[in-house]
Design goal:
Helices cover 49% and strands 15% of the residues. The chain has helices spanning 19-30, 42-56, 72-82, 107-135, 159-177, 196-200, 203-206, 217-230, 239-250, 253-263; strands spanning 10-14, 34-39, 60-64, 87-92, 138-143, 182-187, 191-193, 214-216, 234-235. α1 (19-30) crosses α8 (217-230) and α3 (72-82) runs parallel beside α4 (107-135). The longest helix is centred in the middle third of the chain and has 29 residues, at 107-135.
Length: 271
């Protein structure tokens, strides 16, 4: 890492080792941001850091961090504070899915999931917001999902619920902080080409979905950066996803749940 006090702003991206997180890092680096890269896989982070430093000349700080640990966010914040890094763009992207129905997994897996997808983003906002407010500028992207705008599905029981939480949290946070110069955006992508479905074991299932429903991670990240710079509070990238969200919002609840019941096996691993 080079001198953290030089002029270019800093962005912090969680889940930066692959997929949408890595795409956010590359997009922000192209826009001149220095990067705090956060994830569990140090080797992936260091490879990305070398790519960004050599290719775009940006500064990076690699932080190996498991956000399921209760102390992890406080330790991360202390690390950036000690390095003199003022985070102006926070991207809460880290996430994954827990397959099957609720009782198919031990409680500890669900506890860690809630920690990574709900508790950690809230605490990261809580810790980094005061400095943004004091400067009168800052941007926060909470990567939610189109699933958070749709009826719940069978399988991956907590996923849509956690993303719905992030959307509502982002809306409240935006209302609280826009008068203070801080933009907050809930980014709600749909199916995105990444490792996500390989990790959850759903690749064979979701690969049957029509190609028009998929977006590339770099397009999602670029859309998300533009959205938060504009001050959008909720952003759904992709025209197809916006149509799906419109139908999800306007369908009667009973009909929406019936359709989800029939379609869950097409994109969710069951017991």
């Amino acid at each position: 890492m080079n001198d953290p006090t030089s002029a270019s702003p800093w962005a912090l991206v969680t889940g930066a080792s692959a997929g949408i997180g890595a795409a956010f890092a590359r997009e922000l680096a192209r826009r001149g941001y220095s990067l705090v890269l956060v994830a569990r896989r140090r080797d992936r982070l260091e490879a990305l850091a070398r790519e960004l430093e050599s290719g775009l000349g940006v500064r990076t700080l690699v932080v190996e961090c498991d956000l399921a640990r209760a102390e992890s966010v406080a330790e991360l914040h202390a690390r950036t504070e000690a390095a003199g890094i003022a985070v102006e763009m926070l991207v809460n992207n880290a996430g994954y899915g827990v397959t099957g129905h609720l009782q198919a997994q031990p409680w500890e897996r669900h506890r860690d999931f809630i920690g990574v997808l709900m508790s950690a983003p809230v605490e990261l906002c809580w810790r980094y917001l005061p400095a943004m407010q004091a400067r009168g500028r800052g941007h926060i992207v909470n990567v939610a999902s189109l699933a958070g705008l749709m009826p719940g599905s069978a399988g991956h029981t907590l996923y849509a619920a956690s993303k719905s939480f992030l959307i509502k949290f982002s809306q409240s946070l935006a209302l609280e902080n826009s008068p203070r110069g801080v933009n907050v955006t809930a980014l709600c992508p749909g199916f995105t080409y990444s490792e996500f479905h390989d990790v959850t074991g759903a690749r064979a299932i979701v690969s049957k979905m029509p190609r028009m429903m998929w977006m590339h991670a770099d397009a999602v990240a670029a859309d998300g950066v533009e959205a938060v710079l504009r001050g959008d509070v909720v952003r759904i990238p992709g025209a197809v996803n916006r149509v799906i969200a419109w139908f999800g919002k306007h369908l009667p609840d009973q009909l929406g749940l019936l359709l989800m019941k029939r379609q869950s096996r097409r994109f969710r691993v069951q017991d």
